[in-house]
Each structure stands twice: as C-alpha cells, then as structure tokens.
Specification:
- With 215 residues, the chain is an alpha+beta fold.
- It has a domain of 124 residues: Immunoglobulin-like.
- Helices cover 21% and strands 27% of the residues.
- The chain contains two helices and nine strands.
- The chain has a five-stranded antiparallel β-sheet, with no helix packed on it. Strands 1-2-7-4 form a four-stranded antiparallel β-sheet, with no helix packed on it.
- A hairpin with an 8-residue loop joins β5 and β6.
- The longest helix is centred in the C-terminal third of the chain and has 27 residues.
- It is globular.
- It binds 2-acetamido-2-deoxy-beta-D-glucopyranose.
- 2-acetamido-2-deoxy-beta-D-glucopyranose binds next to β2.
C-alpha cells in the first residue's frame, strides 16, 4: 500500500503527458474529415516551410489506376491524408478514390463523407519518418487531384502542419504525350532535310546539263 500511491500518481502523470504528445493517438475523428484540422490539438505552433513532402510515383492518373503516395521529410507521429479535387468549381472538400495503407500496423483507413476507405491516418502515435500507401483512382474522370495531408510532427500535440499538398495530378496522359498525333512528318528538321535534298538534286541536274552542253 505504501508504494501504490506514488505508482498511481506516476501513471496519472504519464497519461497526462501522453495526451499532450498527441490528442488523437489512434487517428483523427470523422468530424475532422472535411477541415482535416486536428481541433483537439489547439492552434499549430509551427511556422515557416513544412519539412514534409507528399510525393507520388506518377505525375498524372487514369481511371482505376493504383498510385503510390508517400509522406516523408522528417520524423512525425500522426498523419491524415486524402485525395482531393483541385479544379476550381469542383468539390474540393470530399475525399476521392480509395486508399490501402502500406503498413497496417501504422496506418488505417477512414470512411469520410459516407465514402469507403477514402482517407488514411496513423493508428498509433509511434514515431515514423516515412509512410506509404496505395491510392486507387476513381473509375471516372474527377479532373485534377492532389493529396492533402495534415501531419503531426510532435513531440507536443500543437506542433503540426495542415494543408500540405502533393503536386497536382491531372487526369489523363502527361502533357508531352498528348496532342501530337501527326508524328515526325511535321518535324521542321525533317522538312528542311527534304529541301536540302531537293537542292542537291537540282544542282546535280544543272551540273549534268552544263556538262552535256559543253560536250
Ligand atoms: C506506382 O505504384 C503502384 C503501387 O506499387 C504500382 O501499381 C504502379 O504501377 C506504379 N506506377 C508507376 C508509374 O510506376
């Protein structure tokens, strides 16, 4: 009994510290689906350029395609990621596509806005430096999308970044491969090559004519 009271006190203090480290150790609540702001964390104390980046293994997407999305840059404890439409006039508040966490010991999915598995978050607040998932694109054209992330850097719960975006991923083929259906026939170097060839033939013909007249 003599040792029980201090032990209980230590456990209580550790629990309080744990709450300070992260307000949602098991992942964000569904109420955060639209804003993606971790309300239980208070205002962010971080300013300047985020040390984190959200990268993908392709620069565009097609219907139903699987794309790898990665959070990296620095140590972090919590994350919340969704693919969002980016075109002006489109619904930029709804998660699109579905996500499969790369590591299900660290990540889990959420069903945001009546969808299924359309958001990805941490499920434990263990420190990590890089996490990946597979995003499966919708089966129809949703225009340009980007991945939007909220990342809790820690160690305290008010050290987080929100509105961290990947590069935009347009729907369809990369810009360099579109529009040029005519191929090399319109290539100006090929065109000038023909001109040079034509001139040489003309000079050759004139030479023969001059030579023939001289004989
Ligand atoms: C991107 O990664 C996914 C998942 O690993 C893979 O299925 C897909 O083929 C990759 N895409 C490219 C363009 O490498």
């Amino acid at each position: 009994m003599l040792y029980a009271a201090p032990f209980v006190l230590v456990v209580a203090v550790l629990n309080a510290l744990q709450m300070l480290v992260e307000a949602y150790p098991g992942g964000p609540p569904l109420s955060a689906c639209i804003s993606m702001v971790p309300t239980g964390h208070g205002a962010s104390t971080l300013t300047g350029t985020t040390p984190f980046s959200i990268t993908t293994n392709t620069t565009f997407y097609t219907a139903g395609e699987n794309i790898e999305v990665t959070i990296s840059g620095a140590r972090f404890v919590g994350f919340f990621v969704q693919a969002r439409r980016r075109d002006s006039g489109s619904d930029t508040n709804t998660a699109v596509g579905t996500i499969t966490p790369g590591n299900t010991n660290i990540g889990k999915t959420l069903d945001c806005g009546g969808g299924t598995d359309n958001a990805w978050s941490h499920k434990t607040n263990a420190a990590k430096t890089s996490e990946s998932a597979i995003w499966t694109a919708p089966t129809d054209d949703k225009g340009t999308i980007a991945f939007r992330a909220t990342i809790v850097q820690g160690p305290s719960s008010d050290r987080y970044w929100t509105g961290v975006y990947s590069a935009n991923l347009p729907y369809g083929s990369p810009p360099d491969d579109t529009g040029d259906m005519s191929g090399p026939t319109t290539d100006p170097t090929t065109g000038s090559g023909h001109v040079v060839y034509g001139s040489s033939l003309l000079i050759l013909l004139v030479s023969f004519t001059v030579a023939a007249m001289n004989n």
